[in-house]
Design a protein that fits this description.
Layout lengths: L12 H28 L5 H8 L3 H9 L6 H10 L28 E7 L11 E3 L6 E7 L3
Antiparallel strand pairs: 1-3, 2-3
Helix pairs in contact: 2-3
């Protein structure tokens, strides 16, 4: 995503939803990983967390089984029971190292039509599409990252 702080354009619902879910997943991955490490070393169990927070053990299992939309207070409470806290860091998009891959939600594909196909298209060539107006086959390609 590009820097939108100086633009008057509104954020797209798609971008907002994507980055919300990405933050949830990152936080969950860190908490779940830390819990797994602590549990493997015998330092904490789900039941101990439930007892310390006066919660039902099944609630702790739900929290630690998959990303959920729990509040920051809940996150803090879970980490406190494990004797830990989250170390926060904010990074500008422009300062991040560019990945060598693209997530399908961050790429805006562009379809290019090359015109009429000179010969019948086989399965080893690009996809075949028929122009509904002229009933002529066309060769198409999808350009990623354009």
């Amino acid at each position: 995503m590009e820097n939108t702080s100086k633009q008057n354009d509104k954020l797209s619902r798609r971008d907002v939803a994507y980055y919300r879910r990405r933050q949830q997943n990152r936080l969950f991955a860190q908490v779940a990983s830390f819990f797994a490490e602590e549990a493997a070393n015998g330092r904490i169990t789900r039941k101990e967390i439930a007892d310390k927070l006066s919660k039902n053990p099944s609630q702790i299992t739900r929290w630690l089984s998959g990303p959920s939309n729990f509040e920051l207070d809940t996150l803090s409470d879970i980490l406190l029971t494990m004797g830990a806290e989250l170390d926060h860091r904010i990074v500008r998009f422009s300062d991040r190292v560019k990945p060598n891959f693209s997530h399908h939600l961050t790429v805006h594909p562009q379809v290019i039509t090359f015109g009429k196909a000179p010969a019948p298209v086989t399965s080893s060539t690009p996809s075949k599409r028929t122009n509904l107006r002229t009933n002529n086959p066309e060769i198409t390609a999808v350009v990623i990252g354009a």
